[in-house]
Amino acid sequence: MRNRDEHASTALLTDQYELTMLAAALADGSAQRECVFEVFARRLPTGRRYGVVAGTGRLLDALADFRFTEPELDVVSRFLDPATVEWLSNYRFTGDIDGYPEGELYFPGSPILTVRGSFAESVLLETLILSIYNHDSAIASAAARMVSAASGRRMIEMGSRRTHEWAAPASSRAAYLAGFDATSNLQAVREFGVPGAGTSAHAFTLLHSGADGEHEAEAFRSQVAVQGVGTTLLVDTFDITRGVATAVEVAGPELGGVRIDSGDLGVLARQVRDQLDGLGATKTRIVVSGDLDEYAIAALRAEPVDVYGVGTSVVVGSGAPTAGMVYKLVEVDGIPVAKRSSHKESRGGAKSALRLARPTGTVVEEVIYPANGEAPVSEEFTARPLQVPMVRKGVPVDGLADLTQSRDLVARGLVSLPWEGLKLSAGEPAIPTTYVG
Question: Domain Nicotinate phosphoribosyltransferase N-terminal spans what residues (predicted)?
């Protein structure tokens, strides 16, 4: 398998039916009709109370590379007529995109993204947009729940081995956006600037075994010699109590941390903390990992844990691997259109949204109204518009939030929720969504 080229065309990250629709629309003359498409989630994953918008930065990068060059044209020419292939050879998205800033919270029906342009230009973006937003928003939404459960303790994402190799850095980015502190994935370090973290696995300790037995101390000495006493030593390869004693003996009381990756983490964390303190290593941190999710993290809240390492659960959205977002046509030449299929209904017409909050900053309601109408006014609550310009005439606008600013937005959003909105137990969305106009 060849390595991914960061600047390769993204045009084939799509479904064939988008191109066959394009061909028919070009043939019947409807391709240039001005359309509005919206991205929204009809509902949140079962029991979830909010979602986190993620993937905007990746989408804008992918949009810039959405071009049909000779290799892409060779593929599509196998099922498209020559006129459509010729049209694709000159494809550029020249429309407008507005949306919720990356890191904003969303709720059922939130118009997370609005795409305006010709049908031909806009329909081709459906799969690209949904694949990025559905994946990244699912990861960020799960990660935000874990960050809330951790109550300010350090979080490391380490799920690369539990997902597709190119989904792994995107997962790392989404987890970092939601408040994780670091990742083990080096592609995410390089591509997105996420801080890296990682020290040693059980294999390194086992490597230092011989015919005469286990040499845990030798493995620890080797690691400390290279990484310094501030490193974190994995102490549960054999016997944890012995491992902790050996770790402090080798590194001294200034040892940076010990990691526990198995067993009853709460009980072991208490035992290890007492042992470390008794050995004078009062500042040595305890890192726990091993099948953690938001519920396990919450259960450890009262234990002397300093750092959580989360793998599988975060990269699969902790049981909700997709955000369930859809990309629907809502307006054609200024005329509202809507799907009426049972359980898959959509609301016609382009929309805008604002969020109402008490003077204290606690949000109380999301209000969605016609994009060409007057924004509702509230005397009791402050109103904050949610959509911002992202693309104008095919070009990303200046001044969009970077990853650091988006992290801050997530943190502010979580603080703004009513207290029950942060509960991990199943419940209704943290605030209601109201349609007016």
Answer: 12-133
Domain holding 176, by residue range, is 151-316
What is the structure's pLDDT at 379? 87
Asked if residue 337 and residue 310 are part of one domain, the reply reads: no
| Whether this model's pTM surpasses 0.70 | yes
Q: What is the pLDDT of residue 317?
A: 97
d(CA 309, CA 307): 7
Return the ∠ at Cα 22 (arms to 17 and 24), rounded to 5°.
Answer: 95
d(CA 184, CA 309): 10
Amino acid at residue number 243: G
Q: Of all helices (H) and strands (E), which one includes residue 312?
A: helix 312-315
121 and 64 housed in the same domain: yes
Q: In sequence order, which residues have a C-beta less than 8 Å from that of residue 363 and are 6 or more positions away?
A: 355, 356, 357, 416, 417, 418, 430, 431
The answer for residues whose C-beta is within 8 angstroms of residue 280's C-beta and 6 or more apart is 248, 253
Angstrom distance (rounded) from CA 67 to CA 211: 60
Same domain, 282 and 338: no
Same domain, 189 and 203: yes
pLDDT at 2: 37
Instruction: Please tell me whether residues 293 and 159 are part of one structural domain.
Output: yes
Asked if 112 and 208 sit in the same domain, the reply is: no
* Cα angle 131-132-138, degrees, rounded to a multiple of 5: 95
Whether residue 227 contacts residue 259, with contact meaning beta carbons closer than 8 Å, is answered with no
Please tell me whether residues 293 and 176 are part of one structural domain.
Answer: yes
Total number of domains constituting the chain: 2
Q: Would 1 be classed as within a structural domain?
A: no
Using 50, 70 and 90 to split pLDDT, how confident is the model at 437?
confident
**Helix, strand and coil in the chain, % to nearest 5:** 35, 20, 45
- Which pLDDT score, from 0 to 100, does residue 282 have? 98
Quickly state the pLDDT bin for 339 (edges 50, 70, 90). Answer: confident
Residue 79 lies in a domain: yes
My answer on whether 335 and 401 are in the same domain is: yes
Write the pLDDT tens digit of every residue in 123-154.
Answer: 999 999 999 999 999 999 999 999 999 999 99
